[in-house]
Design a protein that fits this description.
mainly alpha, 0% strand, Serine-tRNA synthetase type1 N-terminal domain-containing protein
């Protein structure tokens, strides 16, 4: 499991590392969800 705080603080690096493992992370969707969570 990935720490949510790590995803928030270092999204680009997390996405790159997941891509190396064959998982395409939708960073734009995560950014939108985080913005929605904060409102």
């Amino acid at each position: 499991m990935i720490d949510p705080q790590l995803i928030r603080n270092d999204l680009d690096n997390v996405a790159r590392q997941l891509l190396k493992r064959g998982f395409m992370l939708d960073t734009e969707q995560l950014i939108a969800l985080e913005a929605q969570r904060k409102t």
